Amino acid sequence: MRLLVVEDDRALNKQIVTALEQAGYAVDTAMDGEEGQFLGDTEPYDAIILDLGLPKVDGVSVLTAWRREGRKTPVIILTARDRWSDKVQGFDAGADDYVTKPFHMEELLARVRALLRRSAGHATSEISCGPVKLDTRSGRVTVDGNPVKLTSHEYRLLSYLMHHMGRIVSRGELTEHLYDQDFDRDSNTIEVFIGRLRKKLGVDIIQTVRGLGYLLDATQAQTTQAQTKT
């Protein structure tokens, strides 16, 4: 999953980015509303963390512009402790959730996970596809209850596919959502990671749809699992 953090406090910005990257997300960052609005307009983020008290363009104006243009990216707003009116403004502008400063980083991470789950239609922190289970809270992946050790890029790839089960995901989309803007993107590496994932998981749940991309189909996974046991 690829996220954008728009926060002008350099220390807090760095803390948030570090925590998100350690949790396995690709993260871009902006220090003011003008840059943040531009990135939100031009890059395909899975979620955005947006401070409201930004220089150049305030957060409410940025969010209002995104929603007016039809951008549906989930947004968590950051607000000052004693300014409840900011929360109201933020929600009216189209925010999906808010976190009040100061906050515990674990709370922000939990809200990001919940927002990503809801936007993908999942109700709990554990996502299952046949014998494969991914716990978004712990970052743990298991197959038939047995843990599978993945690299950060392998985990990001599997997580994105599992969040979008039942839909064909192109290599280009995967490339856009797995790497931050500073990464030297090469869609050919996606094939490499897919191959590694298939080998490590040991079950045939990732289908290649020729000319279109990749598909995780829970029904196919269950069929494959049943055939294996038989």
UniProtKB/TrEMBL annotation:
Q: Which Pfam families match?
A: Response_reg (PF00072), Trans_reg_C (PF00486)
Q: Do the record's keywords include Acetylation?
A: no
The OmpR/PhoB-type domain extends over: 124-218
Concerning Gene3D superfamilies, the annotation shows: 3.40.50.2300, 6.10.250.690, Winged helix-like DNA-binding domain superfamily/Winged helix DNA-binding domain
Q: Does the keyword Transferase apply?
A: no
Q: Which UniProt keywords apply?
A: DNA-binding, Phosphoprotein
Which part of the chain is the Response regulatory domain?
Answer: 2-116
Q: Which residues carry this modification: 4-aspartylphosphate?
A: D51
DNA-binding region spans which residues? 124-218
Give start-end of the signal peptide.
none
The record ties this protein, via InterPro entries, to:
CheY-like_superfamily, OmpR/PhoB-type_DNA-bd, Sig_transdc_resp-reg_C-effctor, Sig_transdc_resp-reg_receiver, WalR-like, WH-like_DNA-bd_sf
Instruction: Give the protein name, as stated in the record.
Output: Response regulator transcription factor
Q: Which organism is it from?
A: Microvirga terrestris
Question: Mind giving the lineage of the organism this protein is from?
Answer: Bacteria, Pseudomonadati, Pseudomonadota, Alphaproteobacteria, Hyphomicrobiales
